[in-house]
Amino acid sequence: MESYFELQKNNTSIRTEVIAGLTSFLATAYIIAVNPAILSQAGMPFSGALTATVLVSFFSSLMMGLYARNPIIVAPGMGLNAFFTYSAVLGMGITWQVALGAVFWSGIVFLLLSVFKVRVLILKAIPRPLRYAIAAGIGLFITIIGFANAGFIVPNEATTTGLGPLTPSVLTFLGGLFLMAILVTRNVTGAILIGIVLTTLAAYPLGRWWALDAAPVINWQGVFAAPDFSLVLQLDLVNSLQFAVFPVIFAFVFTDLFDSLSTFVGLAEAANLTDEHGEPRNVGRSLTADALSTTISGLLGSSPGTAYVESAVGIEAGGRTGLTAVVAGLLFLPFLFLAPLLSMIPAIATAPALVLVGAFMVRPIVRINWLKMDEAIPAFLAMVLIPFTHSISQGIIWGFLSWAVLKVATGQSRSIPVTLWVIIAFCVLALVMQTH
C-alpha cells in the first residue's frame, strides 16, 4: 500500500488517508438520498435510483483511487441529475430509459476524448488566471451550498438572498462552524471529521429536548433497507441515438466535460496536487476514470457521474493519494443495505465543512495579476458567475468568452491557442442551445 500509493512521497500516512476518506464520504454522502429524490421525479423508482447511486459512487471512486491515484470522489453529479430529470425527461418529453441511453453515449464520447487525449489538450488550453479563478469560484459555490443547507442564508424577494432567522438549528450550525474553524486553525488532525461528529451530537436534542416547536433535526428511520437492482441495464441504446436526442447527449458531454475539468483544476490548484509541469496530477487517468463513471452510470441506472468538488473537504483533512478515494468508495457500498443510517448526519453538521472549504479554495486568486485587466476581468467573471448562477459550466463559459473578447480587442488574438478557439466555439453553441 505504501509503495502503490506513494504515501511517504506525498507526506501522508494510512491513518491520515483513512480519516480523509471518511471525511470526504461524510461531505458527499448526501448524494445517496438527494440523487434518487431528483431522479424519481422522472418516473424512476426511488429505491432503484438509490441502489444505482451507491453502485456508481462505489465503482467510480474506486477507479479514481486505484487507477488515477487521486483523492477525488466520483459520484452522480448535482446539476447533471437536475438536467436529466427536468430538462431531458420532463422538458423534452423523452423517457427515462432513453435519457439513460443518452448518458451512456455521452460517456462513450468522454472516453474517446480521453483516450485520444483531447480532454488533456483542452485542459492545457485553459489560461492559468482562469484556472485560479475557477478554483475560487468553486470554493464560493461550495460555501453558498453550505450556508443554504444550514438555513443561514435563504431566498429573499427584495435582495435575492438574505440572512435567515437565527433558529436553534442555525445556531447549532454556527457553533459547529466556529468549533471546526478553531480545530482547523489549531491544526488538529481530523478537525473537519471531529467537527461533523460533534455537530451531529449537538443537533440531536433539537426538537426533542429543546426547541420543541420545531421538528427533530435528526430522524431515526431504522437501519436496514434491501437494495433494488430494477434499473440496472434498463437504458434504451437504440432510441437514444435519434437525432432529437443529440442535444441531450451534447448537453451531458459539455456540462460534465467542463465540470470535471474545472474540478480537477480547482482541487489541484487549491491543494497543490500538481505535477512538475504545474498540471493537475495524473490528469489523463483521472479524466478516463471520470469518463468511465459516466458510461457505467447509464448502465446502472443513474444520471452521469462526475468528480465531486466536496472532495476538497477530505483533501483539506490531509488526503493526498488515491487511498482517500478508495476509502470513501468502500464506505458507499454498505449503504446498499444501510441507507437509513444517513439520516443520522443532518445538513447542519456537514454545512460547516462546506463553508470552510470555500476559504481553502480561494487561495489561488493571489496568483492572478489583478492589474492586468484583460486577464483580471475574465477571471473575475468566471469566479463570481459560478456561485451566482449555481453553475460551474456557466462561469467557465463566460470566463472563456470574455477572455477571447478582451484579447481580440487589445490586439492579442494570436495569444489564443487553436484549442481554446474550439472551446469558445462550443461555449457559443452551448449558449445557443440553451435558448432553444
TrEMBL record:
Listed PANTHER family: XANTHINE/URACIL PERMEASE C887.17-RELATED, XANTHINE_URACIL PERMEASE C887.17-RELATED
Similarity field: Belongs to the nucleobase:cation symporter-2 (NCS2) (TC 2.A.40) family. Azg-like subfamily.
The name this protein goes by in its record: Putative MFS transporter, AGZA family, xanthine/uracil permease
Annotated source species: Pontibacter indicus
Primary location: membrane
GO molecular function, one term: purine nucleobase transmembrane transporter activity
Pfam family, one: Xan_ur_permease
GO cellular component: plasma membrane
